[in-house]
Design brief:
single chain, mainly beta, AOC barrel-like, 3 helices, 45% strand, globular, disordered N terminus, binds 2-acetamido-2-deoxy-beta-D-glucopyranose, Dirigent protein, Dirigent, secreted, apoplast
């Protein structure tokens, strides 16, 4: 059904990659203004099963999106609460959650406007969060979204996230995210 395809496509976009780098960078301690912290991890997004991590909350009323076979439409809106792990497998160590929503906001490409809070729950950034916003075209090999802020260690942070689909099957996707985050010196000294 329409929502199924949409969920799968959108899920794929989201999941690509947060775990590894974040924790590697942590070994170097607090970053300086010129050196972004690198966080690497994976995001597990699934619209199927008894406890889906992403749900369709509104069917778009616009035209069908290219390549969706008619199952995804301009205006489809999803909410997600995805696990973030260090590695790509579901059993990998959990390092946080990605909570947010995305809406198909392009009349042509299968591209969504995505906004999410990345809540970190492990390592040196435990308790801090990143605010991420951007355009996510699920068909592109790599997407770039913006880090527009954060909390805790990441208060007033800026940066970007490189987003890839690691795997995609049915309504489930694993996304690989690399976040490069510039920590505000002002916030660090606060
Ligand atoms: C969206 O459309 C599908 C297919 O018609 C339907 O099964 C589903 O309940 C709808 N979801 C919402 C949130 O309207
Ligand atoms: C993260 O912080 C919370 C709250 O302080 C704490 O309960 C939890 O054990 C910490 N997790 C890890 C993996 O350090």
């Amino acid at each position: 059904m329409a929502s199924h395809l949409t969920s799968a496509s959108l899920a794929t976009l989201l999941t690509a990659g947060m775990a590894t780098v974040l924790f590697a960078s942590a070994a170097h301690g607090v970053g300086t203004q010129g050196a972004p912290r690198h966080l690497h991890f994976y995001m597990h997004d699934s619209s199927t099963g008894p406890k889906p991590t992403t749900v369709l909350i509104a069917n778009g009323t616009g035209q069908p999106l290219k390549g969706s076979g008619g199952s995804a439409r301009f205006g489809d809106t999803m909410v997600m609460d995805d696990r973030l792990t260090e590695g790509p497998t579901p059993a990998s160590r959990v390092v946080g959650r990605a909570q947010g929503f995305y809406v198909t906001a392009s009349q042509g490409d299968p591209a969504v406007l995505l906004t999410m809070n990345v809540l970190l729950a492990d390592g040196p950034y435990n308790g801090s969060s990143l605010a991420v916003v951007g355009r996510n075209n699920v068909m592109m090999p790599e997407r770039e979204l913006a880090v527009v802020g954060g909390t805790g260690v990441f208060r007033m942070a800026t940066g970007y996230v490189l987003w890839k689909t690691a795997s995609w099957s049915g309504g489930s996707a694993v996304l690989e995210l690399d976040a490069f985050v510039y920590v505000s010196p002002a916030a660090a000294g606060a």
